[in-house]
Each structure stands twice: as structure tokens, then as C-alpha cells.
Amino acid sequence: MTNKLNTLQKELAALVDRHANREGTLYTEISNLAFSRHSIPYGFNRTEPPYRIDKPSIYIIVQGVKDVLFGGERFRYGPPNYLVASMDLPIIAEVLEASSEVPNLSCKIEFTRSDILELLSNDTLTGSHRGKSSRSLNVAELDVSVLDAVVRLIGLLDKPMDIPVLAPLFTKEILYRVLHGEHGSSLRQIVTEGTPAIHIQNAIQHLLNHFQESFQVEDLADIAKMSVPSFHRHFKQITAMSPIQFQKQLRLQEARQLIKMEESMNVADIAFRVGYESPTQFIREYSRMFGISPKKDRHRLNKADAQEIDI
User: Fold this and answer.
1) Cα of 266 vs its chain's centroid, Å
2) pLDDT score at 227
3) What residues contact 186, with CB distance under 8 A and at least 6 apart?
4) Domain HTH araC/xylS-type, which positions (predicted)?
5) Mean pLDDT by 10-residue block, N- to C-terminus, for the chain (311 residues)?
6) Residues 6 or more apart in contact with residue 109 via CB below 8 angstroms
7) Terminal CA-to-CA distance of the chain, rounded, Å?
């Protein structure tokens, strides 16, 4: 089994290396498949902007190692693993191993909620998950069945005529394997009526749409149709953050985009734009998150030829 896994990993690395032929993120002819290539390591506090996962996805490191900062937790994954993400999340990534000779290579495969619901009609995937909540970001062990299906999906890029028919089938197989895997429940919970995740998603969507605005936890709990203690518990279980921390990440990520893109806006204006009442507090929290003040970060971002990153 180990030999088969190693063989598939080498085959996958060769495929991604050939098709991810430039730095940064590359979207492919397969609509739910993207690659990432980096030849220089980068850290949480370097010039790349933060990243947000907005669809249920899996991420596979084909070559090298990455860390992901999620809430206050750090996840490390490489070729033996894949990352399972189930809902809208603010994420920061760090490439630990990369060089021009051996670049860091990864691929992302996205799924729709309809894809998950379709497979949940299969009796072997049903089960009672009511009252339970799983973390929305997890590292799982990569096995031969998942890897083999991924290799076949990416191999379709060499046969574009086959993509319309076979890509949906291979994607469905990959999702089926993931749903049967150790963290499949994190994807099941986002479409299963009665699970806390269904209700927490509504509160998360409200925060995503109104992160600049202050809120009362009681109002978010009402949106989630939960008591305040239950809402707090499930939100933290699913997102690894409190609602306040989640909002802060969204605000600071938006602020960093504005720092980079809106040169005419001063730091105080950006602070107010993303919802801070105090520029001093904004500068303090920005510096704590990114390791540099907004003013110095703007100078660094403007000097760098930074490229958008993926996990």
C-alpha cells in the first residue's frame, strides 16, 4: 500500500509541476480545480495577503509543507495529508519548504453543497449528526483511494475533450471518499438539517456581510436560533474562534487589502472603513496580527511584487 501511495504521489507531483507552470495561483480548465506554485518560502507576516476559504474544499500539498493559521491554532500539512475545509473561513497560510529546484506545489478541489447533498442520499453516508458540531478545518491522512481519484481528475487536463463528462464523475468520487474519511462529518454537517453548523453558518454569513458593524452576541444567537451559551459553544467548536475574534480577522484582512490597494487612503480612514472607532486600537491589533504597523506594511507591500496565494 505504501509503494502504491508513493507512486501516486510522484505521479501527482509530475502532473501539477507540468500544469502549474507559473508562480502563484493557477485556475484550470476544470472549473473546481486550481493549483498553487511557490518557489520561495513565505511566512505569516510577509507580503502576501491573507486568504479566505469560501467554498467546501480539500487542499493537497503535492510537494513541500505548509502551515495554516486558523483562529489561534496552527495546522501543518504536507504530501501525507490533505486539508478539509467546510465553510467560509478567514485563513492565513505559510509556505515552509520551497525553492526554484523543488517548488511548493498544491492543488485545491472545490465542492458545492449540492454535490454533498446528492451523495448524502446514499444510505452508506447517512447518519445522525444532530446536536454535534465538528471543526470546519481539519487535516486528514491521505489514502490511496482519494489520491488515485485526484490523479485521474488532474490527468484530464491532458485530455480536455474528456473533461465535461469525466471531471464531474471523478469529483464525485473524490467527495465520496472524503465524506467516508475521518473528517467527512465536517462536510456532512453543513447540509444536514438540525445540525448546529447549519445555524452557525447563518451567523457567519451575517458577520461576513456586516463585519464593519458592531454586534450584540444575543443578536447573532437569534440569527442562529440558539441560546447564547449554546451559540458561543458551537461557534467556537466550528470556527476555533469567538465571534469577536472572527470579526476581528475579517476586519484586519479587509484592512490589509485596502492598505495594499488604496494608496490614497490614510491609516485612520482605513480603520474607520473596516469598523474600528479608534485608529490607535486598529494599529495595535494590525501590528499584532501581521507583525508590522500598517504604515510600514504599506511600504513593504508596495515594494514587493506580491502575488495572491492559496492554501
Assistant:
1) 30
2) 96
3) 84, 86, 134, 135, 136, 137, 138
4) 201-300
5) 86 95 92 93 56 81 87 82 87 84 94 90 57 76 94 97 97 95 88 87 92 94 95 92 92 90 90 95 92 87 55 53
6) 32, 33, 57, 58, 60, 150, 153, 171, 174
7) 27
- φ/ψ (deg, to 5) at 67: -110, 145
Q: Write b or e for each residue in 121-144: b if 16 or more Cβ atoms lie within 10 A of its Cβ, otherwise e.
A: eeeeeeeebeeebbbbbbbbebbe
What is the pLDDT at residue 73? 78
C-alpha to C-alpha distance for 84 and 58, rounded to whole angstroms: 5
246 vs 67, 126, 227, CA distance in Å? 19, 31, 19
The answer to whether the CB of 119 falls within 8 A of the CB of 187 is no
User: What confidence tens digit (pLDDT) does each residue in 180-238 have?
Assistant: 988 898 898 888 888 888 899 999 999 999 999 999 999 999 999 999 999 999 999 89
Annotate 39-51 with DSSP letters as a single string: SS-B-TTSSSPPE
Q: Are 51 and 69 in contact (CB under 8 A)?
A: no
Q: What is the dihedral of CA 233, 234, 240, 242, to 10 degrees?
A: -60
CA nearest neighbour of 205 among 192, 190, 194: 190
Given a contact cutoff of 8 angstroms between Cβ atoms, the answer to whether 207 and 214 are in contact is no
85 in Cβ contact with 54 (< 8 Å): no
Percent of the chain with pLDDT over 90: 53
| Cα–Cα distance measured from residue 128 to residue 300, given in angstroms and rounded to the nearest whole number | 50
Q: Angle of helix 294-303 relative to helix 243-261, nearest 10 degrees? A: 50
